[in-house]
Structure formats: C-alpha cells, structure tokens
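QA checklist item 7 of 12: single-chain prediction sanity check.
[x] sequence parsed
[x] length recorded as 89
[x] structure emitted
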Amino acid sequence: MFVIFGFQRKPHRLATIRSICAGCRDRGAQELFSVRTRFRLFFVPAVPLPTTYRTTCAACGTSSTVSAERADLLLASAPPVDEPEVIAA
C-alpha cells in the first residue's frame, strides 16, 4: 500500500517596507511575505497549518521570520500601494 503525502508552501507578498536588515544592518527595502503551509494527502490539500511571516532584504537577500503581531505592525506602517488606473473606453 502506498500513501502519497507532502507539504505545500505558498508565499504571498504583502508589502514592501523600509526596515533595518538583521543581516547587513542596512536600512532599506524589505519584502514582507505571508507563507501558508498545507499538508497534502494524495495531492489533495487536507490540513491547513499555521501561517508564518517572513521579511527578505532587497540588498543582501537575508530572510528572517517575524511574529504575526510584528507583521501586522509592519503592514500598518507600509505606504499605501497605488491602485492601477482604469481607463474608460
């Protein structure tokens, strides 16, 4: 009998923030991601696991995990994203 199982991780970019990098100590752009992990059984997503949050430095590429509370604070301090213009025809 074969049982096929695995994990699926999907990163989703939430915002670009300005923060101090833990690796290079540069105050620059960092990407804030939420990473959703799901347990898969026979290629069917069966169980969602807790979401983690990560920041990735644009200068050196260092990635670090942040708590959900810290991610909420970083997201609140992020500048608003411009909405694309809709051109009426």
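[x] summary fact logged: The first strand starts at residue 5 and ends at 20.
[ ] second reviewer sign-off
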